[in-house]
């Protein structure tokens, strides 16, 4: 039997945790994620996604939840299995072959205030990842960001970043942060209201200098959802 066929197979669970935080320079919302600095080989001192080997006591979703809890001490509002990464050469420096089941989690802006970072954890804007990351985690991050940016055009997943009540401007800023581009406000408002995914609460935002905007909440998804992205001219 060859060395390749004798190679030990390890199943791991990693979690891409997205949150929206202000840019330190502009104050605009941007997409961030936490990374963990590895303290052992392979890839010692490299940044990596939170996660680890799957043990016999937990199923996949439980393992992802545990990773989220350990990394941020917040339970995710939205947790979804993303993809499986198992290229034979994804961890060439490791003595075993590692197949990772990757989840992604979305942290609401209200939940982000409760985040407590674990040891060796540091948050970074997705556009400024300190690479190269360990293993194939650069590929995983790119895949997760692309998937999120695609999914906001056909589902109301962006609502997971918001508190229970929000203005349409709040929602637009979430889309702009995810897509990393400015959107046309009038067109965005028209499209969102036509989808049936938000409900008017009958209340307005308080503490504003001008006419307070209406507050909305998420509504059951309509049978059709399609958002055409038009940038702000």
TrEMBL record:
InterPro entries given in the database record: NUDIX_hydrolase-like_dom_sf, NUDIX_hydrolase_dom, WH-like_DNA-bd_sf, WH_DNA-bd_sf, WHD_NrtR
Highest rank taxon of the organism: Bacteria
All residue ranges annotated as the Nudix hydrolase domain in the record: 35-140
Ranges where the NrtR DNA-binding winged helix domain occurs: 161-217
Pfam family, one: NUDIX
Region Disordered: start-end pairs: 199-221
Name the record gives this protein: NUDIX domain-containing protein
């Amino acid at each position: 039997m060859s060395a390749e066929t004798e190679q030990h197979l390890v199943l791991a669970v990693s979690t891409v945790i997205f949150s929206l935080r202000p840019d330190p320079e502009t104050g605009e919302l941007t997409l961030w994620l936490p990374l963990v600095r590895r303290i052992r080989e392979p890839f010692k001192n490299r940044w990596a996604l939170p996660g680890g080997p799957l043990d016999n006591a937990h199923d996949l979703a439980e393992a992802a939840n545990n990773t989220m809890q350990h990394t941020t001490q917040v339970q995710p509002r939205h947790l979804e299995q993303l993809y499986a990464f198992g290229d034979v050469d994804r961890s060439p420096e490791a003595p075993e072959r590692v197949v990772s089941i990757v989840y992604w989690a979305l942290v609401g802006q209200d939940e982000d205030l409760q985040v407590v970072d674990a040891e060796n954890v540091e948050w970074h804007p997705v556009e400024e990842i300190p690479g190269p990351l360990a293993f194939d985690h650069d590929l995983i991050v790119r895949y997760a960001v692309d998937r999120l940016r695609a999914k906001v055009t056909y589902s109301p997943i962006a609502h997971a970043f918001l508190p229970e009540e929000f203005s349409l401007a709040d929602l637009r800023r979430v889309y702009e942060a995810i897509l990393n581009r400015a959107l046309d406000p009038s067109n965005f408002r028209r499209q969102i209201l036509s989808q049936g995914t938000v409900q008017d609460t009958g209340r307005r935002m308080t503490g504003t200098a001008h006419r307070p905007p209406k507050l909305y909440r998420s509504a059951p998804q309509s049978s059709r959802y399609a958002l055409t992205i038009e940038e702000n001219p």
